[in-house]
Specification:
The structure holds two protein chains of two kinds. By secondary structure, chain A is α+β, with helices and mostly antiparallel strands. Chain A contains eleven helices and 13 strands. In chain A, helix 2 packs antiparallel against helix 3 (72-85) and helix 6 (236-286) packs antiparallel against helix 7 (293-320). Chain A starts with a helix and ends with a strand. Chain B is α/β, with parallel strands linked by helices. Chain B folds into two domains: 2-119, Rossmann fold, CATH 3.40.50.2300; 128-222, Winged helix-like DNA-binding domain superfamily/Winged helix DNA-binding domain (Arc Repressor Mutant, subunit A), CATH 1.10.10. In chain B, strand 6 and strand 7 form a beta hairpin. In chain B, helix 2 packs parallel to helix 3. The longest helix of chain B has 15 residues, at 105-119. Chain B is elongated. Chain B starts with a strand and ends with a strand. The chains are: A alpha+beta, B alpha/beta. Chains A and B meet through helix 6, helix 7, helix 8 and helix 9 of A and helix 1 and helix 8 of B.
Chain lengths: 491, 225
């Protein structure tokens, strides 16, 4: 199991931001420390070099002035011993204190004339002779048997021999190691603390953003009257919330305005339609206009079509503006489709059309059942109007991810090429169509308002296919596959 | 039976009043909410027809106000609005009904009749219905005409039962859509008519007197005389 999927925190933006911020902080402090470390190291080096040069100069003087007799070795040895006790910032190490410093006088060849330090000094002499160095500046010396190098300064005395003073770099390295250990502990603590602080603050910030996002998506789905939480903060996020709310105010007022317009339009047209229809009906029922009854009947039919057209136009207009009023409830799509097919089946079989439905288990959507009835009815009306006899229509219901997919396929002539592109636009219809051209525009508008989508294509094997997808109810459905349930047409 | 009709559009008021009178009701009319409230305080009405868009107040407010003052008679709400108000739905649950404009007079009469029947003591709501020589048994889902057993699909049976319960009265296509199929819209094609033709093919066979009569432009009627 990867960490990525294990923990939702690790996928959050707060986690990533604090990770990157801590990384930048860690690299920055590390660089700063490296510079500091180099500075401290070179400073310590410079101090010990100065001491070495000074001491070795004194040794040279003493060696030059002391007569070369029996006492020479003792005098110079004493002075060297004293000097070794004055090592700067020295730390008393356990064991022999003398192993930190050595004093050596030797000619260019032959054994050492004088040696002060631990051991017999042959290894030191061999190391010095094998190192090609300029005699004026102190140099590093690696001696066999010592893990830590010596810093050595030299001076040439009158008799042609050299005096060497060596100081172990142990103390210097010890100081630097201490510095590094302490810095590293501090650095780790700082980075961790920084990470925690950054993570906590960004998480709180982004938590407010995701609250706003959730509220906004709720508003998008259901009611326009609620608002995102106003945190009253003066920062960018508070500003974001207020901007969104301001925008929602405007959208709500626009939608409200649209409702007022469509309502008053509907009202103003419906009242005269009602009066006209009523009068025609009374005239027809009175039986006094026997001769004109045919024209009155067709006038009533036309009025009914006009009313239906008015309703559908306004519905499509509202749906296009995302302002269609829905009364949603949990709907079993299969049952709903079957009930509409029950209504259409006799007409279809009269026309020689077969209709069948295939569905997998129960598919529930949260939708306005009245509008969905009309959507399915529109699709079947289309089939009735456009398909030649002996075609068949197959409605299948499936689940695809979080969507319920309703597909209506036929084996008819398919869509006309020239209207294919504009199928879902208002008033687009085939040449032979007698309808008002709102059918598919209505279907598309209603499905879109429910958060779904519609596609229409000509199938490669001939015939048309219209596919509707609608979000499943709470995306909760029985997952277990069920056998195909076939309801054949009775024809 | 006395009814109160509250409608500000005089044209509509006149033909609704005329057809209600034609169906045997005594009708009082009011043009606004104030007049309606005065009438309702003076007389007892068995039923009311209220338009939602009154000049002085909202029809729903009028209904609620009358309910508060103790008027219990059922109301048929007329609405020219596009969507059904939640408050209308509330009233519908409370036993009232609504009709969107434009409507067929037959439907208005049928709904009014249903409302009034709801308030009346229940008549023997028999499981056996008889219209002339047509007989249906709603329990056993069996229909006969004369001695012949009719072979009906479940849907045809429901349709016939509805026609029988409304025998002698006009039923419109939209009433059939609502009552038989439970859908409130007008299909673009004549699907309801096809159902009726099929049913007629099984009931009104050769040599029998046709029972289902088409009223062109209006609907259908199952003749009981």
């Amino acid at each position: 199991m990867s960490l990525r999927t294990a923990n939702p925190i690790m996928r959050s933006a707060a986690w990533r931001i604090s990770l990157w911020a801590s990384l930048a902080f860690a690299i920055g402090t590390m660089l700063a420390f490296t510079m500091l470390h180099r500075f401290v190291a070179s400073d310590i080096q410079r101090r010990s070099d100065a001491w070495l040069s000074g001491e070795v100069g004194v040794m040279g003087d003493v060696a030059a002035r002391t007569p070369k007799d029996r006492l020479y070795g003792r005098v110079v040895g004493e002075v060297a011993e004293l000097a070794s006790r004055e090592v700067p910032s020295r730390q008393r190490s356990s064991g022999n204190e003398n192993d930190a410093v050595f004093f050596l006088q030797a000619g260019d060849s032959g054994p050492a004339t004088l040696w002060v330090g631990s051991g017999d000094g042959t290894a030191n002499l061999a190391a010095i002779r094998s190192t090609r160095v300029s005699r004026d500046v102190p140099f590093d010396l690696r001696v066999q048997g010592f893990s830590i190098p010596f810093r050595v300064a030299s001076v040439r005395v009158g008799d042609g021999s050299n005096i060497y003073l060596g100081l172990s770099e142990r103390d210097e390295l010890h100081v630097l190691r201490n510095l590094r250990v302490r810095f590293f502990a501090l650095w780790l603590a700082m980075v961790l603390l920084g990470f925690v602080i950054v993570f906590y603050t960004t998480r709180r910030m982004l938590g407010r953003v995701s609250e706003i996002t959730e509220a906004a998506s709720r508003i998008g789905q259901s009611d326009l009257s609620s608002r995102v939480p106003d945190t009253r903060g003066k920062d960018e996020i508070g500003h974001l919330g207020r901007t969104l709310n301001h925008m929602l105010d405007r959208i709500e007022s626009t939608v409200h305005q649209l409702h007022t317009i469509t309502d008053s339009l509907a009202h103003d047209l419906r009242s005269p339609l009602t009066a006209v229809r009523g009068k025609l009906e009374t005239a027809l029922a009175s039986g006094m206009v026997e001769d004109h009854s045919e024209s009155i009947v067709s006038a009533i039919d036309e009025l009914d079509r006009l009313t239906e057209f008015l309703n559908t136009s306004l519905d499509v207009a509202e749906a296009k503006a995302d302002a269609l009023r829905l009364s949603r409830s949990e709907v079993d799509l299969g049952e709903l489709v079957r009930s509409v097919i029950d209504l259409y089946e006799p007409s279809m079989s009269d026309k020689g059309l077969a209709v069948q439905i295939r569905s997998v288990g129960s598919i529930k959507v949260l939708a306005d059942p009245g509008l969905l009835h009309r959507v399915i009815a529109n699709l079947l009306d289309n089939a009735l109007k456009h398909l030649p006899a002996s075609c068949s229509v197959c409605i299948s219901l499936q689940i695809d991810g979080h969507m319920a997919v309703l597909s209506v396929e036929d084996d008819g002539p398919g869509f006309e090429a020239e209207i294919d592109r504009h199928l879902f636009q208002r008033r687009v219809k085939g040449r032979a169509s007698r309808g008002h051209g709102l059918g598919l525009a209505f279907v598309e508008a209603v499905v879109r308002v429910h958060g779904g989508s519609v596609t229409a294509v000509n199938r490669s094997e001939g015939g048309a296919q219209i596919k509707l997808s609608l979000p499943l109810c709470g995306a909760r459905t029985q997952e277990e596959p069920q056998s195909l349930d076939l309801v054949g047409s009775s024809s | 039976m006395r009814l109160l009709l509250v409608e500000d559009e005089l044209e509509i008021q006149s033909f609704v009043k005329q057809s209600l009178a034609g169906a045997g009701y005594e009708v009082h009319t009011a043009e606004d909410g104030r007049a309606a409230a005065l009438l309702a305080a003076k007389h007892v009405y068995q039923g009311m027809i209220v338009d939602l868009g009154l000049p002085d107040q909202d029809g729903i407010d009028l209904i609620l106000q009358m309910r508060k003052s103790g008027v219990t008679s059922p109301v048929l709400i007329l609405s020219a609005r596009r969507s059904v108000d939640d408050r209308v739905k509330g009233l519908e649950l409370g036993g009232d009904d609504y009709l969107t404009k434009p409507f067929a007079i037959a439907e208005l009469l049928a709904r009014m009749r249903n409302l009034l029947r709801r308030n009346a003591p229940p008549t023997e709501d028999s499981t056996r219905l008889r219209v002339r020589d047509l007989e249906i048994d709603t329990l056993r889902r069996r229909a006969t005409r004369g001695d012949e057993v009719l072979n009906l699909s479940p849907q045809e049976f429901v349709l016939l039962e509805y026609l029988c319960r409304n025998a002698g009265r006009t039923v419109t296509r939209s009433m059939l859509m609502t009552e038989v199929w439970g859908m409130r819209f007008q299909p673009d094609t004549n699907v309801v008519d096809v159902h009726i033709y099929r049913l007629r093919g099984k009931i009104d066979t050769e040599g029998r007197e046709p029972l289902i009569k088409t009223l062109r432009g209006i609907g259908y009627v199952l003749k009981d005389r």
